[in-house]
Hints:
Elements: E1 2-4, E2 14-16, E3 24-33, H1 35-42, E4 48-51, E5 61-66, E6 72-79, E7 83-84, H2 99-103, E8 114-129, H3 130-135, E9 147-150, H4 151-156, E10 163-164
Parallel strand pairs: 3-5
Antiparallel strand pairs: 1-2, 3-9, 4-8, 5-6, 6-8, 7-8, 8-10
Amino acid sequence: MHRFRDGAPENHSVVFNIFSLGTSLMTDAILGIQEAYMQQIVEGEKTYKFRKYRLPQTVERVWFYSTAPHFQIQYVCQIEPAVTRNENDTKLPEDGLGNKEFNDFHKDWDRYDFAYKILTIYKLNEPITLAALKQDYGLGGAPQHVVYAPSHLTESVPWHKQTKLS
């Protein structure tokens, strides 16, 4: 594992896994998500994904790994670089779940200092199961933290050829 620092305060550093099988372009990240939150994104209720850490600027897409009961990647979303909530930053439009709370520094959003706008949502024509992630793409288990998608995953499942939802 390698540590990437992006200039954020020490408590915002994050560990990224680099796969030994194949290479990674660092443009595609895999993030775990609970099914209820994923459905809020799919339904357009949630327009930003909030994190406690900044993803590297190279990340253009997030492949969402749905936890129980699915245990598979079902969606990939194009994202914008992080919006922060520093003193001089522009506020988020309050058109989605959590945006107002992010802007208002609500106590439930403590340390969720990075917001990623969801630009497009694609549903995979065939979900990638946990077994396939392990066997075909070299993951040791379910993604617990952000990991880069190996290039052989993004090549064998081209995101732009999946079913575009928005």
